Amino acid sequence: MNVFFPEIEPYKTHRLKVSPIHDLYIEEAGNPAGQPVVFLHGGPGAGLSTKYRRFFDPKHYRIILFDQRGSGKSTPHACLEENTTGHLVDDMEQIRKFLGINRWLVFGGSWGSTLAIVYAEKHPEAVTGLILRGIFLCRPEEIEWFYQKGCDLIFPDLWENFVKIIPPEERHQMIRAYYRRLTSPDRHVALAAAKAWSEWEGGTVKLLPNPDTLAEFQEEHMAVSLARIECHYFVNNCFFTEEDQLVRNSHKLHHIPAVIVHGRYDVVCPAKNAWDLHKAWPQAEMKIIPGAGHAADEPGILNALIEATEKFKGLK
């Protein structure tokens, strides 16, 4: 069973101004002359964790990680202005060119899988391969499942905490109700909504809930950016212009080597998402992991992800 590679520190960090508003934090770890791989974090809005460097053999890979707009160490924190899927795709191209990289392996989980697919569909010439985990396709039924009706039947106790700050007359549109509070000028209202939103996600992300994971999601800096930016994207249909956009455009990916890893009991992003993508893109290797939920560090998922990073060594 594969486990995380040893802890490492970045050998270089950067600040990159990608717009008049947004300044991104970027770090490089591993082998400066190695095979380039870019890691795309989830959320949107979650930001980086030090463990994300550890999916990759540091002797082989030049590991590129960055906090997406409004997330982590990027500034301004939790900013919604000029923060769309298209902006993030363009940021990736700015980062790639800034670092002098011709082509790179793209690794993304949850929202990171969404961004990876959108990027690869727009810039297939820049992608050597894709490693995707916990597929999120940003379809209305997926958002409805997790934030309106579906997942509440599995976690009724946690759902009660999620809905209790919303008056009954607004609960038929939970995303919009939360958006009003997360964008409220009253800091106390906005922070209470952010913590409730993040608690719901942190409590459901693993097959067996973990207090450390929940504490990570409840940390104020992360909770605010995660809740505000996620809700901003979801209330705007992730800024997609076509129905089922990622699946409909998946023919653009058929020539790219890819591995899809998904937990069988993922309740945040149900396995049907991965299955629908795989049916449209049968060239991608599909791994449904028994005994796993959504989180990347669950043992079976972690094992499969590191198998993929080892398998894709040498892609050009």
What would you note in describing this structure?
Helix 5 (174-182) crosses helix 8 (220-235) and helix 6 (187-204) packs antiparallel against helix 7 (211-218). The protein is globular and about 55 Å long. It has 316 residues and is an alpha/beta fold. The protein has 11 helices and 8 strands. A hairpin with a 5-residue loop joins strand 1 and strand 2. It has helices at residues 85-98, 111-122, 140-147, 156-163, 174-182, 187-204, 211-218, 220-235, 245-248, 272-280, 299-311; strands at 12-17, 23-30, 35-40, 61-66, 104-109, 127-133, 258-263, 285-289. It has an 8-stranded mixed β-sheet with strand order 1-2-4-3-5-6-7-8, sandwiched between helices. The protein folds into 2 domains: 12-139 and 239-311, Alpha/Beta hydrolase fold, catalytic domain (Rossmann fold), CATH 3.40.50.1820; 141-238, no CATH class. Helix content is 38%, strand content 16%.
In summary, what is this structure?
The protein is an alpha/beta fold and 316 residues long.
At the fold tier of CATH, the topology name of the largest domain is: Rossmann fold
Helix content: 25-40%
**CATH C-level label of the largest domain:** Alpha Beta
Beta-strand share of residues: 15-25%
How far apart lie the N and C ends? 27 Å
As residue ranges, the low-confidence spans are none
CATH architecture of the largest domain: 3-Layer(aba) Sandwich
Tally the helices. 11
**Helix-and-strand structural type:** alpha/beta
Rg is 18 Å
Q: How many domains comprise the coordinates?
A: 2
Q: How many extended strands?
A: 8
Shape: globular
Note the run of SSEs as H and E: EEEEHEHEHHHHHHHEHEH
